[in-house]
Structures are given as structure tokens and as C-alpha cells.
């Protein structure tokens, strides 16, 4: 029934509805995942400037899941083994793991409930990606 009603909408109303749906999917912190997690922006180590690279350039997606107390990582391509270093900069503590990029998603359990957290991804070929988030 909803599809039938949408066909009767003019393009202006349809565009407004689409914009509202998109805006409602964001909160003050940005997009969230079904378990309440917030995305972590992952950048190449050689990134400079204020613009973000095209998503196809960064083959890693990550978010912090407060329900699982974990950084959840998935890959858009098979990168083989990836070393991941998660550091609580405020506490001076680190968690290091190696994950296989084809085992997605991977959950990296972290023991902290507050602080500035850095996540580094080191690929087999030496490429480095990183991201930061606040707990």
C-alpha cells in the first residue's frame, strides 16, 4: 500500500520524504549501527587535509559497539592478515590483535569505558590506516 501511495506523490513531496528519512537516520554523533555503535572514520596514514578520501580508497570499516565493548571491524576487500593496535591514549593502555580480513566482522574487545581511543591497521604490505574516537 505504501508503494502505491508513493507512486501518487509528486517529485517534490517524494524528495522531501527521502531527505527526512535520511536525516532521521542520523543523530548528533553521526550514523549509528543497530547495536547503538558509532562509526570510526578510517583514514590512510598518508592522509592530509580536511577532505575525506573516497570510500573505495579505504578498504576498512569500523565502529565502536558499546553493547559489546568492542571495536567491530570489516573489510571491503580481502587484505589477508591485518595487525590491529587499539590504544587508549588517555590511559596509556594498548590491545594488539591480528585478524584475517576474510573473517568479517571481527570483534576486538576493549576493556575501557572512557578516554580517547586510537585504532591502527597495519597491512601485510606495510600500508597503515588509522582512526580515533572518544568513549
Summarize the structure in words:
16% of the residues lie in helices and 41% in strands. It is an alpha+beta fold and 135 residues long. It has a single domain, classed as Immunoglobulin-like (Sandwich), CATH 2.60.40. The radius of gyration is 18 Å and the shape is globular.
| CATH fold descriptor | Immunoglobulin-like
Secondary-structure element sequence?
HHEEEEEEEEEEE
Biggest β-sheet strands, sense, barrel: 5 strands, antiparallel
The top-level CATH class is: Mainly Beta
What integer is the average pLDDT? 77
* Amount of helix: 10-25%
What descriptors fit this protein?
135 residues, alpha+beta, Immunoglobulin-like, 5-stranded antiparallel sheet, 2 helices, 11 strands, 41% strand, globular
How are the elements arranged and paired?
Blueprint: H1 2-8, H2 11-24, E1 26-27, E2 30-31, E3 38-40, E4 43-44, E5 60-65, E6 70-75, E7 81-88, E8 93-100, E9 106-109, E10 116-123, E11 128-134
Please summarize what this structure is:
By secondary structure, this protein is α+β, with helices and mostly antiparallel strands.
